[in-house]
Amino acid sequence: MRYSQLFAKTLRRPPREAKIASHQLLIKGGLIDRALSSGIYSFLPLGWRVMKKIEKVIREEMNAIGGQELFLPSLHPRELWEETGRWQNYVPPLLKLKDQHGHGFCLAPTHEEVIADLCRRFVHSYRDLPSAVYQIQNKFRNETRATGGLLRVREFIMKDLYSFHQDEKDLDKYYQKVYQAYEKIFERCGLKAEAVEAFSGSIGGSFNHEFMLFSSSGEDKVAVCDKCDYKANLEKGEFARRDINSKDKLLPLKDVYQPKEIDTIEQMAKFFKLPKERMLKDVLYKGSDGRYHVVIIRGDLAVNETKLAAALGIDSVSSGTEVDLKKLGTERGSVPVKGLKGAHFIGDLSLKTVKNFVGGYKRASKELEWENTNLNRDFKVGKLIDVAEVYDGAVCARCGAKLKLKSAIELGHVFKLGTKYSKQMGAKYLDKKGKKQLVWMGCYGIGLGRLMAAIVEAYHDKKGIVWPESVAPFQAHLLAIGKTKKTASQADDVYQKLKDVGVDVLYDDRQDVSAGVKFADADLLGVPIRLVVSEKTGKKVEWKKRDNQKTEFLNLQEAIRRLGKNL
Amino acid sequence: MRYSQLFAKTLRRPPREAKIASHQLLIKGGLIDRALSSGIYSFLPLGWRVMKKIEKVIREEMNAIGGQELFLPSLHPRELWEETGRWQNYVPPLLKLKDQHGHGFCLAPTHEEVIADLCRRFVHSYRDLPSAVYQIQNKFRNETRATGGLLRVREFIMKDLYSFHQDEKDLDKYYQKVYQAYEKIFERCGLKAEAVEAFSGSIGGSFNHEFMLFSSSGEDKVAVCDKCDYKANLEKGEFARRDINSKDKLLPLKDVYQPKEIDTIEQMAKFFKLPKERMLKDVLYKGSDGRYHVVIIRGDLAVNETKLAAALGIDSVSSGTEVDLKKLGTERGSVPVKGLKGAHFIGDLSLKTVKNFVGGYKRASKELEWENTNLNRDFKVGKLIDVAEVYDGAVCARCGAKLKLKSAIELGHVFKLGTKYSKQMGAKYLDKKGKKQLVWMGCYGIGLGRLMAAIVEAYHDKKGIVWPESVAPFQAHLLAIGKTKKTASQADDVYQKLKDVGVDVLYDDRQDVSAGVKFADADLLGVPIRLVVSEKTGKKVEWKKRDNQKTEFLNLQEAIRRLGKNL
């Protein structure tokens, strides 16, 4: 490819909204366009070459584990998503539209409904199982906030694999295969991805992992134990609740004065001159089951909504609004630990670590609060569960060491769906005895654009991208340096020879730009091997790796040999 | 691939709604699923293999003419389409939706707006021209009526190429290249596509062709002259207006009695005992320019709306409604040839062929009509233009022979956009003299799913599909026939050897179905070469081509040699 003919060349500067390296470099290099609308990107020819290489790696590994490629639509009829309740409950809300006849459709963010529908019509007998299908296809997400370039977008290309099995054992076996295939994919792309325990939520199942790349640009947080190697995301991260004073004697419950201005846990702790962990926090949530749930938790901890929904066995929860509070006869800051009709009370594990809490029964109008509030004596909860969000410095539940919170990019997700969708949609097969059984399902995703951005986050320096060979847009970048006709014709000749032997080469043949610009563009674009033809190189070519400062003068034959070809 | 492991196997019968061969066979063979919703299809593993082969052919030919592959989004912001006026005027109406913030988007049926936006930001100088980019990407169309399986759909994968040029001459040169590349693509897919002159419409430009496959299942009509080889679609087809009585003397205009029940041209002609061509027809249209246009045409001819819009230089026209007629002070059946304030009058070329028309000034309430109505004496029109739809048996405008109307499937479209979009969106470049010039553009599309269906329409028999080698889902289909363990193990062995040497083979290893079912499925799926291992074949394999009845017994080595591989 001659650079002069390339559609969409490098830019002098990245757009102002680009804050992280991958966003800046991909746009500056002309690999992607600036956002057409928030979180919606065009892949330009250079970027699309990288995407195609990533696609090839993924396709090879999916085929290697028996995945059969297919292609499903993006427009899904409303009725299908109503069967699983996700027409209403999907988070973030589905992008919905109507056709000319007024029929409702959504733009698919994922394909469980369509695939389970295929499964219930095409899988009849145990003889049809196991099988696995995948697609590489555009997905849509109605994100409120799309930032970080290709890391969080509203339209994106995803590889989604779905597998079907007779039983849990067979699903678990295949899950391990996919897990290993994912490790290979990320490794082939040059990334060291860490498998992290992830949220299973209402879907259930014992295996569920996210593949994370630790990166300061990552928008996800992972709790990591340096000692025992425990890793989990915020929505799953378990930690031991530090004991505060659980051996203390119970003191008598009493009303104490609390000025009505006191609103937050911080203010309370300061006023009562006690640490935050001695305060009792009550939070109202509305569940996707339509019920109100009051979570009671130690004052220093925060509730993780995903953990909460998972613990409740429902799809999602959202914070109670002023309207909800009013409906229950209370108001913000005054959710009591007991006596709220129509609400379901649950407690975090941390309640066991404290005796004589302050809080739980604020009456703002009377400027009163409880002191020495104690679980089981003064209030009761349905059960004590793990709904607190892990934090930097929390105690590892496995080994007692300290957990660290690290930023990470989620590269992939392997998910044991179990029988959730086959149950909801009636996907059954006849077993060997002729009995109908639910099909066991797994789903496994990788976002291709995010993977490309993650590679750039991991492989760049001040000058630009430093592509790993496996996904580089070209093998070699040839520069013609110098204004003489002789140099140009020599460079043309080298270009032709490289093409003839099958080297995938980008040739900077521009006559109207300086050597400095060409060198800077080569560093920015990050093709692994830079070749220079100039007056200085004579009959040789200058060879330089992007990730190394050393330059060498080589015969063309030797350069071609190093590029894995023969002259 | 073992057939037993294939997701989505053949069906016993196609769905009732499938009327044409490709729709029936693709579904029955398990290549595509029945419609998820009208005009929305899933490609199952076998069908997706065919699509991937078609994609490869197209990609190779696009790369060969310097096309650079990229990938553009499907969600387009409203503002972009408002720049060209197509947010409102696109036909059929765009599929529109809103995001969480209430911003309007459409689902792209085509990408001129996005590509012209890229062009105005990335193409600066004559040095950046020419260039051509393409994508293979999902498109969306809000079709009212989606029928004929993959022939007319609402979501479809399309290859769309866009080219950018300094001037019309360079565009024309590239247009010819694409034209030839298209001929190669269809030829490689086994199809004899005919390039047909097509509607240029408001976009203008002298070159504009559709590539048509003549087929009884086609939903398009093409006028074909057997003598001079003229071919054009209905929206473009020109024909000579047969002279009726243009040499007659003008008779005096007069009012004649016409019963108020008379409503159609047929009724008029019968009542006046004259041929339809002596009747004068007046039709009201509303243009996308917001104006009313009255078309006056000979009674035996029909107006083609696309031709009319093109002749008027506007995007589209639609039939005047009762409301429109009322607004102009008239009613259905009584559009007069003169005196309608606010309407623009134009006439078809056919008006010149008749003297002394009947019609043009019906007053239903008085049961009166005009007789001996003559152009220029009794009424005037802005201009006489070609707006009549060509019909079977019309006279060829080029050679005077008779035109035939044939059914056809549109496989591709090459379109000279000229400077329409670059003007509307400001895509300019600096020429060698430093002067700003509009970029000349072309666009060129092929629908991949429709192409697959067209191949099936052209290549099938009573038993099923007969794939051309180039796009067959597999090279060979191996059947294990017989219930003995020995046969099964021999067949397994042949399968392994075929795979080892790189033959792309589907292996029907099913133990639970009869030989008859396997043979029928092989005929249905239409893989070019059928290989059988049975008790009868001994150490040989039975070789049969799908398009031939002859069977042969071959050594495996010879079979492999014929499949282009070496043992």
Layout of helices and strands, plus pairs?
Two copies of one chain form a homodimer.
Chain A: H1 21-28, H2 45-64, E1 68-69, E2 75-77, H3 78-83, H4 86-89, E3 95-98, E4 104-107, H5 112-122, E5 131-140, E6 155-165, H6 168-188, E7 194-197, E8 208-214, E9 220-225, E10 231-233, E11 239-240, E12 254-257, H7 265-272, E13 280-287, E14 292-298, H8 305-312, E15 317-319, H9 322-327, E16 343-348, E17 357-358, E18 368-373, E19 384-385, E20 395-396, E21 403-418, H10 420-425, E22 428-430, E23 436-438, E24 440-447, H11 448-458, E25 460-461, E26 464-465, E27 476-480, H12 485-500, E28 505-508, H13 515-525, E29 529-533, E30 541-545, E31 551-554, H14 556-562
Helix pairs in contact in A: 1-11, 2-6, 2-11
Concise account of the structure shown:
The structure is a homodimer of 567-residue chains. Chain A contains 14 helices and 31 strands.
How would you characterize the overall build of this protein?
- Two copies of one chain form a homodimer.
- Chain A is built from 14 helices and 31 strands.
- Chain A has 567 residues and is α+β, with helices and mostly antiparallel strands.
- Chain A folds into three domains: 9-73 and 108-192 and 418-456, Bira Bifunctional Protein, Domain 2 (BirA Bifunctional Protein, domain 2), CATH 3.30.930; 254-385, Alpha-Beta Complex (YbaK protein); 474-562, 3-Layer(aba) Sandwich (Rossmann fold), CATH 3.40.50.
- In chain A, strands 1, 5, 6, 7, 8, 9, 10, 21 and 24 form a nine-stranded mixed beta sheet that branches.
- In chain A, strand 27, helix 12 (485-500) and strand 28 (505-508) form a beta-alpha-beta unit.
- The model of chain A has no long low-confidence stretch (mean pLDDT 94).
- At the A-B interface, helix 2, strand 1, strand 2, strand 3 and helix 5 of A face helix 2, strand 1, strand 2, strand 3 and helix 5 of B.
